[in-house]
Design a protein that fits this description.
Keywords: Cell inner membrane, Cell membrane, Membrane, Transmembrane, Transmembrane helix, Transport. By secondary structure, the protein is mainly alpha-helical. It contains 13 helices and no strands.
Length: 277
Amino acid sequence: MSTPAASALSRPPLAARRPWTAARIAGHFFMGFWILSGLALALYLGQSLFSTFASQYLPKYFSGALVTLQLTVYSFLIGAALSVPLALACSSRFFALRSVGNAYVYFFRGTPLLAQVFLIYYGLGSFRSALDTVGLWWFFRDAWNCVLLTFALNTAAYQAEILRGAVQSMPKGQWEGALSLGLSRGVTFFKVILPQALIVALRPYGNEIILLLKGSAISSIVTIYDIMGEANRAFSRSFDFQAYIWAALAYLIAVEIIRRAWDLMERRLTRHLRRNA
């Protein structure tokens, strides 16, 4: 039978109490401030659900959310399709092809998305006669088409860099092993290298689609009634600042849904890489 003294000696020593430093006090203060602010905002929005503003304008936010979702998904998918040949061009052995690819990526990553939207929507609109001659005016006269094209071209540049980095991270032994089996470089890339590279690029792709979702708010400037467009219309008619609070909340919910769905997909696709406990 163990004695009380032996039991006391076998227990680990108690951790030393942390002193209340200025940094710790400030951290607790700001944490409490943000918690109270969040509770106050939740209370305010809860009361606003029964206001005239909510009954009149909140249903339109759902249609705006659908437009935002369509713009984000379509532009991301088109950009993903464009990013594969663009990444190949940037990694090409031919100087001319590599220069064109790098110039494309440099332009769309180095200029603001808003400026790109204006260049395509307002800039190309200045050449109506030329576009009408070649039969493209029907496309560029629609703000939706211009915004979708701009977002797709912009995200293609970012996705090409993500894909190129993922491909270059693959061990050279993958190429050598496939070539030793008699596989061509094209088959090796699309059947061996690309599937593994996409797994590596999953997390950066998730970040890109979230950035694209938040950047889609720019489309409201050229008369696209997405979430931000509906918020601007609601504020211009009601002059109630809660129009933008609801817009921010909608974006926050959308980002959180995408983040959790992407985490679930990543765990599903990489389950073979996890060791069993």
